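A reminder before we start the practical. When you read a complex entry, don't treat the lines as separate problems. The point of joint prediction is that each chain is placed relative to the others, so the output describes one connected object in space. Small molecules and nucleic acid strands, if listed, are placed in the same frame. In the example below there are two entries. Take a minute to note the order of the lines before looking further.
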Amino acid sequence: MRVFMQRPVLMLCLCLVAGAARAQAEAVAPGSARELSSAAEQIFKAAQPRLLQVRTLLRSTQKQASIGSGFIVDARGLAITNYHVISRYALEPETYRLEYAAADGASGALRLYAIDVINDLAVVRLEAPQQTRFAAFEFDASATAGKLTKGERLFSMGNPLDMGFGIVEGTYNGLVEKSYQAQVHFTGALNPGMSGGPVVTRKNRVAGVNVSKRIGGDLVSFLVPAEAAHRLLEQAKKREEMKAFAVREEIVAQVLRWQEDFFSALKAQGFRQAVFGAYRAPESKAAWFDCWSETNSDERPKPKVRINGSSCGTDTGIYLSNDVHHAGNANIAHTHLKSVDLNAVQFARAVSDYYGTLRFSGSGYGSGITVSDCREDFLSGAADPQRPVLRLTWCARAYRDFPGLYDFSLAAVTQDREDEALVSKLAMAGVSFAHAIAMSREFLAMLKAEHDLD
Amino acid sequence: MIWIELLSRHKEVTARHPLPTDDFLIGRGYDNALVIDDPYVAPRHLRVFRDANGGLMAEDLGTQNGLYDEAGARHVALSLDGNTLMRIGQTWLRAREADFPVPAERKSRQERRLWPWLVFLLALAPLLQVVMHWSMNTGENSLSYYLDDVLPMMMSLGLWVGLWALLSRLVSGAARVARHTTLALLACISLQLYSFLQPWAVFAFSSPAAARYDFVGIWLLMAAICLGHLYIISVKRLRQKAAIMFSLAVAVIVAQWLTYEPFKAENRLARSVYLETLFPPSWRVTAPESEADFFADVQKMEARLEELRKEDAPDEEDRETEDGEQETEDERQSRAADYRPQSEPGGHSVLCPLSSVF
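Here is the predicted structure of the whole assembly.
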């Protein structure tokens, strides 16, 4: 059975950040020694001391468990990287420790100052004597104001695949359309290990942070906008080092706060009633839902049941931990089945095939998520004469590390006709239980059947 | 006249000898009225005679191996009532008078004509199979699709009947192919009906139990079928056979129940959903529930999930062996791409009887 909506929409978080250069002020003097032949060469030479490789080491073996990149943004040693680069350390500080390695071979411990899971950012501080001054990147003013122009040349730096620091040229292509989250579309080759590395303009000012790439695309990569990084840095400057126990609470709080905004935005955008045969079903009007449709009408031999479907999803993909990197995703799918040449039993069987496949938004293995619990039954149309009887399955599972956050998934199939049915599915990831139930009921309330005159 | 009956170890009569006198000897020697070829029997072993009251008596003639009753007690003399079993050497004997009462004649089995039934069932079983698969077929109908079903079914049926007939021939001396075939066909049809009605019951009554414990019905049905075959082989000790088959079925059910773990399967989501097969809406029996009740129940799930969350994570995941973020990242993505919880349609096969269980 073909299940549509399995588009290759996966994004790869690149655990990649280059090591921030340790800022032994070799006071970069561009152009001083000899003429540099290209912009990239010049930029890299100047940036190198500010780049870091960020390594998570397993305490028991002292070997690296993951690597990424980062960059120094403050003379006193604050550096920016991706949250997903340091997440293991942040969540399990007894098991892992965090270390940086600079281009000049210097290395040392990193302390965690601030995280922003929504934008996948973290601020760390290099352990160094009080008076040490570090060479630091500055933010590009037009980037933080969101005023870069499409086509502008950008340079991404980091330590790809643990092969040493490098620089990649690419193009700024604006913010990703159809995305609720602000994400910069960067055309350039990002590789694992570069996560958290800086992306700079010709003037060597930060325009974004490497974060992920699209699997199945060519050179389609994503950056965290400079503005988010700048904002987090300003917050971190005023803060003490984060306490280990506070990390999880902070993450849950950030996700829940994000969610309030998301749901109110969803409500503000509203839903339209899409028509599927005799049924009406909700589809979000929000532009950040990426919608696809599918039909089997072109199949040969002629199918005995006509299937038309639409599937909409957001691909927010908030990375929370090694096991949870899809929080914030939402999917709505409707499949309309109409019998062409099947009797009632056969048709019910055909519907079962669609109804049976229930999935959560995003992946779900690993010990970080509980098994799912489900409730299923037939629901009466009750007070609403337009609401058909539904067969409803509702499943949820909890995030072990983040109390109060759940994935839920529901599938409803109309049970009022013998030759026509609508299978509607809603799945959301990383939501509170109250939101899950409220959203489900709103969704169900918008499922309607047209009544034949009888 | 007195009849001496020789019995097998299973206490079935193997030979009968009428003896015209009221006092005679039994032994291995040729000077006895009844000669027994058993090396453990003495040349003159046993005397059978009528005592003063007219009852039959058996008397050991002072042999080494003696005379035993059914319970294994040795006797010098034993009075016989027609049902008393005696053992001399390794031979079982029974003495009966000519007027020993026998039950009235049983109605001949031959009068119940089996063949029309057999032919009818032989046509019905494959037909049912075809009809059931037709009702599930949502694609093209083709001859090979149905033959694929019916041929293995008939083959396993043949094998099943063959094994029982062989057993029958070995134990009771008659193969009774027609009887075994009839029963096997009936069994096949009942399994087919079960495989259709069980998912329907799940649907009609919204019953998770019917889905989760469908194997209970299957095994009880299998036990009944096997008991039927044993009955055909021999009607004796039916109660013991029934007890054995039933306890076997219970043992299997308990074993399966113990290993049944809804979350063990890889596909965790699909396993916890019980309704796999829908039927036409009009086939429902119980009334649908209200949305408020449904979500009141869903609300309780929050506490259950919180319990689950606090349990220790399964130790299958070994966090310490991951060697590099690049690799785990890649792996994660490919997992994400492949993840597709999909229920396997059709719990158990409708093929019967062998293939559905063995």
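Discuss with your neighbour: The longest strand of chain B covers residues 13-19. What might explain this?
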